[in-house]
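quick one, 168 residues, struct below
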Amino acid sequence: MLMLSKRILTVLVVLNWVCVALFALVLAFILSPVSAAIADELVRAYGPDRAPSLMRAMAWVMGLGIMTSIAAHILFRRMRAIVRTAIDGDPFTIANARRLRTVGWALLAIQVIDLGFGLTSLALGARVGEPFGWNFSVGGWLAALMVFVLARVFEQGSRMRDELAMTV
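---
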């Protein structure tokens, strides 16, 4: 199971970079002069007064996607390192406690970014008169909290193991 987890995390790192590239490509297109075609479609669909705010919102969402991908990259890399130590038979280390804490910060960052996306979605929905899909994720916030707690448990456990090793 650990080897499968390591492979999955490796694939996720690669897919995450693909997402960063796509977000950056779309953002560059939105900000380029060539984006007039998109603006024209938005003017036709929502009117000339709403199109500029929609273009800004699209650019903002792509930026949020890039920020989320950066946090996800940190998360995937730290998780892969933790899995590697578990494969090697020594997962309860101070280094893994630090990695888990970093995973907690990455999860927290993703939740904060998601709030930014939610506010954008709500504002945009009010602006164009159509609801956009977003829900507050209690589970995501709880997951971040749980990982911080686990990091502390790992830290305490590894210290206790080290102390025990010194007494023997």
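The radius of gyration is 21 Å.
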